[in-house]
């Protein structure tokens, strides 16, 4: 009998319980799965237009900086996104960044000439245990395939950038969730590739026995957390939202370990900021700071839920050189008859 995914928090979810419950946000994958190559690209598009011309406000938090992302310096300075957000493996960051630049130049011939250069935005995690990362297999075509596939409905688990990822000694990957905070929606998407086996916490319950058969390893993974909201917030407020992603991450047992690159980025779809100076800047009434607590709660809950979705929807498989990661859902199912009834872990309502 399958073990249902625990439901985190009391806030209601959007219709999909995914980041795409925030209107206009879409997600697409390109998955590479042949021989010793188990990797891919995941693209998050903030809206259906050209983000280079119609930028969205954003802010981010580096919880632990053991990472090789591209584009964060300019986001910190200007507080905007001007490219789709791309996720991939560590060694494929340059190829995906180049693909974003070429895509922008094709759509905007004045990019880097009459208009500013593009700030590509690419995040990464190291999938080298299951994927032959030295092959550097991801290409420009893979990025474009993920971009073209972006939709409100998308797969989670061992897909796209999540194909070769590991969390807590089991299979990691892509997960997403959403929560409604009053009139506003908050959505999270994670690329989960972090965690020490013995630290795993599920819905407030320490989980040791189901994964005890897996060897303990030091923390040397990463997690990328993306937060979208339709609340009218500025870059400063969005940075504050991104910081609260750490609360949801910590609930799962992360201590933001030395070798883990833990980065959270939040953006708003409530308005756009024009690239061309001849276009007027919008006059937007921002949400009052004193009203942010509901959004903070929604961020923490949706991040924790997205991580559980990544773990539950990932599938077991054997990667390069025979390296294997089991699916957590399979381990929990096998351990269910021996679990303590008092824990409540295996009797929660499914999402």
Q: What fraction of residues sit in β-strands?
A: 25-35%
Count every beta strand, where a strand is a DSSP E run of 2 or more residues: 17
Give the CA-based shape. Answer: globular
State Rg.
Answer: 19 Å
Average predicted confidence as pLDDT: 92
By CATH, the topology is L-amino peptidase D-ALA esterase/amidase
- Main β-sheet: number of strands, strand sense, barrel status? 7 strands, mixed
The run of helices and strands is EEEHEEHEHEEEEEEEHEEHEEH
Q: What structural class do you assign from the helix and strand content?
A: alpha+beta
Q: State the end-to-end CA separation.
A: 16 Å
Fraction of helical residues: 10-25%
Question: CATH homologous superfamily, by name?
Answer: L-amino peptidase D-ALA esterase/amidase
CATH architecture: 4-Layer Sandwich
Return residue spans where pLDDT drops below 50 for at least 5 consecutive residues: 338-351
Write a structural description:
With 351 residues, this protein is α+β, with helices and mostly antiparallel strands. It has a single domain (19-340), classed as L-amino peptidase D-ALA esterase/amidase, CATH 3.60.70. 22% of the residues lie in helices and 26% in strands. The two termini are 16 Å apart. Residues 338-351 have low confidence and may be disordered. Pfam families: Peptidase_S58. Belongs to the peptidase S58 family. InterPro entries: ArgJ-like_dom_sf, Peptidase_S58_DmpA. This is S58 family peptidase.
Descriptive key words:
351 residues, alpha+beta, L-amino peptidase D-ALA esterase/amidase, four-stranded mixed sheet, 6 helices, 22% helix, 26% strand, disordered C terminus
């Amino acid at each position: 009998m399958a073990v249902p995914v625990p439901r985190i928090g009391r806030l209601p979810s959007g219709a999909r319980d995914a980041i795409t419950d925030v209107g206009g946000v879409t997600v697409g994958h390109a998955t590479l799965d042949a021989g010793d190559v188990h990797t891919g690209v995941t693209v998050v598009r903030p809206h259906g237009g050209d983000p280079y011309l119609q930028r969205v406000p954003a802010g981010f938090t580096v919880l632990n900086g053991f990472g090789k992302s591209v584009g964060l310096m300019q986001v910190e300075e200007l507080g905007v996104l001007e490219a789709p957000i791309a996720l991939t493996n560590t060694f494929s960051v340059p190829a995906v960044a180049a693909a974003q630049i070429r895509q922008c130049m094709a759509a905007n011939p004045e990019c880097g000439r009459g208009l500013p250069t593009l700030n590509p935005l690419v995040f990464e995690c190291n999938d080298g245990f299951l994927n032959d990362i030295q092959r550097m297999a991801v290409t420009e075509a893979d990025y474009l395939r993920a971009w073209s596939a972006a939709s409100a409905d998308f797969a989670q688990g061992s897909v796209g950038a999540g194909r070769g990822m590991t969390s807590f000694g089991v299979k990691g990957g892509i997960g997403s969730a959403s929560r409604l905070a009053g009139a506003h929606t908050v959505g999270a998407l994670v690329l989960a590739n972090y965690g020490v086996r013995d630290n795993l916490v599920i819905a407030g319950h320490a989980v040791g026995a189901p994964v005890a058969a897996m060897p303990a390893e030091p923390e040397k993974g990463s997690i990328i957390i993306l937060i979208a909201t339709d609340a009218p917030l500025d870059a400063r407020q969005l940075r504050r939202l991104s910081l609260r992603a750490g609360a949801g991450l910590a609930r799962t047992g992360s201590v933001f370990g030395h070798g883990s690159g833990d980065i959270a980025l939040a953006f708003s779809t409530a308005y756009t900021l024009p690239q061309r100076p001849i276009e007027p800047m919008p006059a937007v009434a921002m949400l009052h700071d004193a009203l942010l607590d509901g959004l903070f709660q929604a961020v923490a809950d949706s991040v924790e839920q997205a991580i559980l979705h990544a773990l539950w929807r990932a599938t077991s498989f054997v990667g390069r050189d025979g390296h294997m990661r089991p699916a957590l859902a399979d381990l929990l199912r096998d351990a269910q008859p021996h679990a303590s009834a008092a824990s409540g872990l295996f009797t929660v309502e499914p999402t």
